[in-house]
Amino acid sequence: MTKDEVRQYLEFYRDLGVKSVYRRQASAPIERAAEIRTAPVPQITASSPQLTAPPKQIVVVPPLEPAHDNLLKIMEDIGECKRCRLHEGRNRLVFGSGNEQARLVFVGEGPGADEDAQGLPFVGRAGQLLTQMIEGTARKEGIPLSRPDVYICNVVKCRPPENRTPQPDEMEICGQFLYRQLMTIRPKAICALGSTAAKALLGTKDGVTRLRGKWQQWRDIPVMVTYHPSYLLRPYNQNAKKEAWEDLKMVLHYVYD
Ligand code: SF4
């Protein structure tokens, strides 16, 4: 499509009162979502039948893989993002934190209340547990590593209301930024915390119990799926805690040995 065709198409939707459009593939992992360009759509004219029966799907337009991308550019591109409904309830957007050259990236689901208040990922109780897990396991295994050495971010950058699970369209829209973060950092491994992160990265419906303990892959980067720390905080999940520690041990040895 030419720029004029895209403009014409979007103006058509604007005139119908549609404020945002996107192409939805609910189960698309972020790799595929980020590849979405624009859908082939017919030219629309005043006499076009589309004026009475508009096509249901179009695309839009995520920024994709700009040359010489880096975290600062991605942050600038996000800006005061209103690309999905999650912006409505956020206090602060939570981009991610840690080492831009990290060899290991942790990907969670989305910010909670503490993260939303501070603008930083994993700073609440679950975040403290994650820090303990990273630093405690590294210490026990003789690996000199602390939390600032890794990079931590989420699939969606704004807090979902009532901490609900992000919806597929929100994950897809925001996933473009996660995609760019991962492509920029290019870690040696990714640790996906919980089933939402696993779904976003791997496009799978399998739960953590099925996926954990063995390597998966996002592009050419190995991915270990394990339990989200907030799940491990529940008192009846002692067994999951042990498994998460085992997963983390495997990841740390793979990345830092
Ligand atoms: S969740 Fe992501 S896409 Fe949605 S408003 Fe926040 S930054 Fe934008």
* Count of discrete alpha- or pi-helical segments spanning 4 or more residues: 10
Contiguous runs where pLDDT drops below 50 for at least 5 residues: 36-46, 57-62
Average pLDDT works out at 86
- Give the terminus-to-terminus CA distance: 49 Å
Structure characterization notes:
This protein has 257 residues and is an alpha/beta fold. The protein contains 10 helices and 6 strands, in the order αααββααβαβααββαα. Helix 5 packs across helix 10 (238-256). The radius of gyration is 20 Å and the shape is globular. The protein starts with a helix and ends with a helix. The model is unreliable at 36-46 and 57-62 (pLDDT under 50). Bound molecules: iron/sulfur cluster. Residues 78, 81-84, 86-87, 93, 156-158, 170, 173-174 line the site of iron/sulfur cluster.
Top keywords for this entry?
257 residues; alpha/beta; 6-stranded mixed beta sheet; 10 helices; 39% helix; binds iron/sulfur cluster
How do the strands and helices of this protein lay out in sequence?
Layout: H1 3-15, H2 30-33, H3 71-78, E1 97-98, E2 104-108, H4 113-118, H5 125-140, E3 151-154, H6 168-185, E4 189-193, H7 195-202, H8 208-211, E5 216-218, E6 221-226, H9 229-232, H10 238-256
Parallel strand pairs: 2-3, 2-4, 4-6
Antiparallel strand pairs: 1-3, 5-6
The protein binds iron/sulfur cluster (SF4).
Iron/sulfur cluster binds at residues 78, 81-84, 86-87, 93, 156-158, 170, 173-174.
Quick description:
This protein is α/β, with parallel strands linked by helices. The chain has helices at 3-15, 30-33, 71-78, 113-118, 125-140, 168-185, 195-202, 208-211, 229-232, 238-256; strands at residues 97-98, 104-108, 151-154, 189-193, 216-218, 221-226.
